[in-house]
Amino acid sequence: QVQLVESGGGLVQPGGSLRLSCAASGSIVSINDMGWYRQAPGKQRELVATITNGGFTNYADSVKGRFTISRDNAKNTVYLEMNSLKPDDTAVYYCNADVRTRPLVARFYTYWGQGTQVTVSS
Question: How would you write the chain as a 3-class SS string?
Fold first, then answer.
């Protein structure tokens, strides 16, 4: 079993900043890609950013230049630094990770966190 636990969400004014963290724990042999997604009320879940275990990143156009994804492989943790926040960034943010759980089986499974609310409002 693998658990992903997000933290760092909250209420922030437009133009403000927040830093989200997501720590993976459990039966982890290795982790490949990690990422952040978000879902606003009435909308589908959408990609925010992803990062490979080698540090290559990918961002949604709507957050480029404002958000930064990073990871600490020793801690099995992924971060999302969010700056210049806008009301449109309001959503539940979810992290995910592609995890190898068995040393003799070269297969990765995708796990999701429970989500953390980010609200941008004055």
Answer: CEEEEEECCEEECCCCCEEEEEEEEECCCEEEEEEEEEECCCCCCEEEEEECCCCCEEECCCCCCCEEEEEECCCCEEEEEECCCCHHHCEEEEEEEEEECCCCCCCEEEEECCCEEEEECC
